[in-house]
Structures are given as structure tokens and as C-alpha cells.
Amino acid sequence: MSPLRHLLDVNRAPLGTLAVFVVMMAVFFFADPRVFSQWTIYRSVLTTLPVALFLVVPLVFVVTAGEIDLSFPATMGFAAWSFALVVHAGLSPWLAVAAGLVTGTLLGFAIGSLVVRFNLSSLVATLGMGFVLRGVIQIANEGMPIALTSLGESGLRRIAAGFVLDVPAQALWGLGFVILAALLYNRHRFGIHVKFVGDNADSAREMGIDVDGVRIATFVLVGLGAALAGILSTLINYTWWPTAGEGYFLPVLASVFVGGTPTWGGVGTVAGGATGALIVAFIETGVVGAGLSGFYVQFFDGVVIILALIGHRWNQPRYR
Description:
The protein has helices spanning about 5-10, 10-30, 35, 40-65, 70-90, 95-115, 120-140, 155-160, 170-185, 190-200, 200-205, 210-235, 250-260, 270-290, 295-315; strands at about 145, 165, 165-170, 240. It is built from 15 helices and 4 strands.
């Protein structure tokens, strides 16, 4: 097999997702070339896209391990709450970042331990934990947001969510996160272990892999990514909302599966998940930018998702 053929074969899932994105953007461009030839519309998408990337990429690890985490929106809101409380108390925003990251990591560890140590279904357990975390937030805050106007003048805001040559800085951070995660997934021992565990946990255990540790680590990674997403979202909006993260639930899950990570575990693609997030992010902007009503957004969401999944089914080899 030639090197090019091998490269295409190994990356057929992310390349298939990329093809869907190119076709979709071509349709939007021909629908209204004036709008889609302007940098403004792409800059607006890149402003919020990294928030989704910090959520999508870790979920690829969890799904590859044969699990699912539905608590990530609540974890995102809870970690962002920790960040907002520290900033609101007048302390350093950098200390607030540390508080948010520690909160997200601990929540990920707690959720993963609950699933693994008690041998619970990750689908039901994480759904329940999501309700618990969101309930604590609502009880403690009674639905009231926390305004953080002081962030506008902080160095953290300029570094994390400023502009670099008219490109949102958070887009560069998101790209860096995707690259590091892809290397971890494809080139590091941890990524290989995740795939072995998702493919056959019993065989992985016989090979000496710490199956429970790997499974918990994937949930910790989701907690860390959710914390980054929550902190970044708060920096962008200067405000923490008790509902932070709720709007990302379905788009993020759709991005994972549109990107070519199947539901049965053992295989996945970080690059495909990132491209899936790009597709989902551009659908709403593209539909409205093309001159259609916002009522068409959900329709096109469904159409693109179904077509992408059908394309992956035709394109992927039989793994089992």
C-alpha cells in the first residue's frame, strides 16, 4: 500500500467529515457570496467555537473508552461558578483560573469514580450527576448571574480572549488544545490504552492495562475540558450565568458523532470531532447568513447530522 493510500485510509473518518464541511460551506457561499466573502462572519464563529472544542475533544476519549458523559454541561457551569466566585471576591483572575480547573478536575474524578467503582451505567449516572450539579447551582444562586466587569481590564482577558491580527485569541488556544489532544490520542500510550479498553476491557485487563484507571482518567479529562470551556465562556461574556453550559449539550454530542467517532467504543477521531464542532457551529450562522429564517436551523442541523452519519457508515471499514 502506498503511503498516500495508507494516510487516506487511516484518516478516512476525519477526511469524510471535512468533505461534509467543505460542501456545506460551498452551499452557503453560493447562497449569498456577499456575506460569506467577508471575514466578519468567520470571526464571529471563531469567537465561541473554542468553547465547544474544549468540550468535544475530551468526549471523544470517553466515547472511545466505551462510556458516555452527559454531565459535562453542568460540570462546565459548576467550574465556571468557582472561577466567577474567586474573581467576584476581588482576588486574582489567575487564581480564579486555578480554582476553576481544580473544580472541574475533581468533579471529573468524582463522576468517573462513581461510574467505575460502583459499576454504574455511565449514561444514567452522569445524567443524574448533571441534575445534581445544576440543582446545587440553582439553589445557591436562585437563578441570579454574577457580573464580572473587572475582567475587561485584566491581562487574563487579553491573553485568553483578545485578538491576534484580527483573529480571536481563543481560536488559537482551541487549536492548540486539539493538536495536543490528537497527539495524546494517536501517539501516546494513554490514547492506545483508551482504545484497547473501549474495544475489549477484559482483554485490556489481561494485557496489564489499568482499565478502571483509564476509564476514570477519561472522565477527569472531560472535567478539565469543561472547566476550560466554562472559564473561557465567562471571559468572553464578562458574566457567569447559572445556566452556563446548557446550550452546548446537543451540539457537542452531535459534533462527536458527526466527526466520525462511533458509539460502540474502541475507535474514534479527535480531528474529526473538532471538524464536527466546526460544522455544527457554522450551521446556524450559515443558515441565517444565507437569508433564511432562524426557524430553519434545527431542520438543517438534523439534515447535516444524518447525512454525515450515513457518509461515515458508507466510508468506514467494518471494525467488527
